[in-house]
Every structure is written in structure tokens, then in C-alpha cells.
Hints:
Blueprint: E1 35-40, H1 46-60, E2 65-67, H2 80-93, E3 98-102
Parallel strand pairs: 1-2, 1-3
Amino acid sequence: xxxxxxxxxxxxxxxxxxxxxxxxxxxxxxxxxxxxxxxxxxxxxxxxxxxxxxxxxxxxxxxxxxxxxxxxxxxxxxxxxxxxxxxxxxxxxxxxxxxxxxxxx
Length: 105
């Protein structure tokens, strides 16, 4: 500690990194003709918002297909671990190209 009353000890609020950097997947150039899955935690207005997103996607990207959030279950709550553990296999099985995940906040 400093003896100067105008100086204070400062601590960085972020903890040290515990996982290695992973490069992100290549991004799609368009959603035209692609299959998009919706994920939701069932907490805040997704039942209102996802239909609007689906409509907007259909207008902007011809041939886009949507797999509704109800296909996967809630990404939050008592089944969260099971839903998230099953997700990679389900997405692959359904040949999903992209995911839009919504959460209540």
C-alpha cells in the first residue's frame, strides 16, 4: 500500500483465463436457402419475438427454413443440462446451418 493518501490499490475485476482461445467457425455469407434453428430459454417474450424474426428472415432470405425453439426445449432451468448436451447431435441430425439463440434479460 502506498503511503500517499491520494493513491489506492487497484484490483482487476476479471479473473485469469481458464480456457484456451478457440477460433470461431466461418460465418455464412447468406441465410438464403439455409436451415436456421431458434433456441430460447423460455423466459422473456420469445413466443412473440421469434415469429417476427422468422417473418423478417423469410422476407430477406428466400428459401430459409426455420426449426422452432420448441423442437429443442428450454436452454434454461431444470432440463438445461440435458437440452444443451443433446444440442450438437440434434443440430447435426437436422442439418441445421445456423442458430439464433434468445434469452430473457
